[in-house]
């Protein structure tokens, strides 16, 4: 349809985010499913800046209206949807595992402890693009990694740990050793205190991942976890450092990549970086990760872009869980990086 094509072209021009007729279709389908901006971003699975721009362009053409804090399709919008055969989203996600494919039943004891411990966690701060996943989610990652045989008797490292993966891993009692590198002293201190109190033996150190790794962690681990900021550079640095900590071939890494701040064109570049490092993507689980809303939303770039000003209430920021494995010829990335690793045209929560 000509109009979808036009809107996509104009939206891409205004945002520098790759846009397709399919992107416009998905935003319309999302508006048919919800009137809430954050839910529309969530459902459409397009980068926030692009969703905001497409909504404004639909509004300019009287296909969408902004009524108070609601976003609604007009009669003309509904007509277009019907002509273009666009329908609201259907969901068939498993309600038991929420589509993750794993449940945390067998980790219940550790999980209950974790729930209490994390009540005292430091709040997410803007400076380091923090935003942590739900406690259940942290444990679902443990369950996933254990299901793949990546924890028992293994040395595990966490690169950046506002999700408190290290505490969950150590509480599970599965890994032989847990190390974390984290830039935020508040988190390192918190994790150390918990580790002392519960005798968890976590090796927690302050480290800026823009800098090369401390020498003793290079080539010393079986499994890594990280959850990088969403620029290609940041993903290359965090995952590259993770790979540099691995001992050998057939070791595993876990990290999230979102659709909220990364277009599929960016995803393609990310996947190329992974393949070029000698990694194979063994698992990719859509919306596995769900991030608790953070307090600094009014300071993030995305807030300026929203067509209606309404605080997010429900979880809207999710990411796909990646599991990668090293094969012959793998090579990490441990060079220093300079410059901004947080922002690009598609980022919105930084
Ligand atoms: C960002 C979450 N800016 C939300 C707030 N990001 C990392 C947080 C670490 N738990 C990116 C998530 C996907 N890579």
Describe it for me?
By secondary structure, the protein is α/β, with parallel strands linked by helices. It has two domains: 2-83, Arc Repressor Mutant, subunit A (Orthogonal Bundle); 105-326, Vaccinia Virus protein VP39 (Rossmann fold, 3-Layer(aba) Sandwich), CATH 3.40.50.150. The chain is built from twelve helices and nine strands. It has helices at residues 2-15, 21-33, 37-44, 48-60, 75-83, 108-117, 135-147, 165-172, 185-197, 232-245, 264-276, 301-305, and strands at 64-67, 70-73, 155-159, 177-182, 203-206, 223-226, 252-258, 279-290, 318-326. The strands form two sheets. It has a seven-stranded mixed β-sheet, with helices on both faces. A two-stranded antiparallel sheet has the order 1-2. Strand 6 (223-226), helix 10 and strand 7 form a beta-alpha-beta unit. The structure holds N,N-bis(3-aminopropyl)butane-1,4-diamine. Residues 129-132, 162-163, 227-230, 256-258, 291, 294, 317, 319, 349-350 line the site of N,N-bis(3-aminopropyl)butane-1,4-diamine (N4P).
Q: What CATH first level of the largest domain would be assigned?
A: Alpha Beta
Q: Beta-sheet strand percentage? A: 15-25%
> Strands of the biggest beta sheet: in what spatial order?
5-4-3-6-7-9-8
Radius of gyration: 21 Å
Write out the distinct hetero groups bound to the structure.
N,N-bis(3-aminopropyl)butane-1,4-diamine
User: Using DSSP, what is the number of strands?
Assistant: 9
The major pleated sheet works out as: 7 strands, mixed
The CATH architecture of the largest domain comes to 3-Layer(aba) Sandwich
Instruction: Kindly name the structural category.
Output: alpha/beta
Number of domains: 2
The shape is globular
The helix count comes to 12
Examine the coordinates and then state which fold CATH places here, giving the name of the CATH topology of the largest domain: Rossmann fold
* Terminal Cα span: 35 Å
């Amino acid at each position: 349809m000509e109009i979808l094509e036009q809107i996509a072209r104009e939206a891409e021009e205004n945002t520098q985010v790759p846009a397709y007729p399919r992107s416009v279709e998905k935003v319309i389908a999302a508006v048919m499913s919800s009137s809430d901006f954050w839910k529309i971003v969530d459902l459409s699975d397009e980068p926030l800046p692009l969703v905001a721009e497409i909504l404004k362009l639909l509004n300019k053409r009287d296909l969408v209206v902004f009524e108070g804090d609601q976003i609604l399709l007009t009669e003309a919008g509904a007509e277009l949807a019907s002509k273009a055969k666009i329908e609201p989203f259907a969901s068939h996600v498993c309600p038991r595992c929420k589509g993750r494919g794993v449940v945390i039943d067998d980790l219940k004891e550790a999980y209950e402890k974790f729930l209490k411990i994390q009540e005292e966690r430091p709040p997410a701060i803007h400076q380091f693009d923090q935003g942590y996943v739900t406690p259940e989610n942290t444990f679902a990652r443990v369950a996933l990694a254990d299901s793949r045989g990546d924890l028992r008797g293994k040395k595990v490292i966490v690169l950046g740990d506002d999700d408190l993966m290290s505490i969950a891993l150590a509480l599970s009692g599965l890994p032989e050793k847990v190390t974390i590198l984290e830039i935020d002293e508040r988190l390192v201190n918190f994790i150390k205190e918990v580790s002392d109190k519960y005798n968890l033996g976590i090796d927690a150190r302050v480290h800026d991942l823009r800098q090369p790794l401390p020498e003793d962690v290079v080539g010393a681990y079986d499994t890594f976890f990280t959850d990088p900021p969403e620029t290609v550079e940041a993903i290359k640095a965090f995952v590259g450092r993770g790979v540099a900590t691995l001992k050998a071939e057939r070791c595993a890494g876990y990290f999230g990549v979102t659709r909220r701040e990364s277009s599929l064109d960016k995803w393609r570049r990310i996947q190329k970086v992974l393949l070029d490092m000698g990694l194979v993507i063994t698992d990719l689980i859509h919306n596995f990760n769900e991030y608790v809303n953070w307090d600094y939303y009014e300071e993030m770039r995305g807030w300026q872009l929203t067509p209606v000003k309404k605080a997010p209430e429900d979880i809207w920021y999710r990411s796909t869980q990646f599991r990668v494995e090293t094969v012959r010829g793998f090579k990490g990335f441990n060079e220093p990086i300079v410059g901004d690793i947080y922002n690009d045209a598609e980022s919105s929560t930084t």
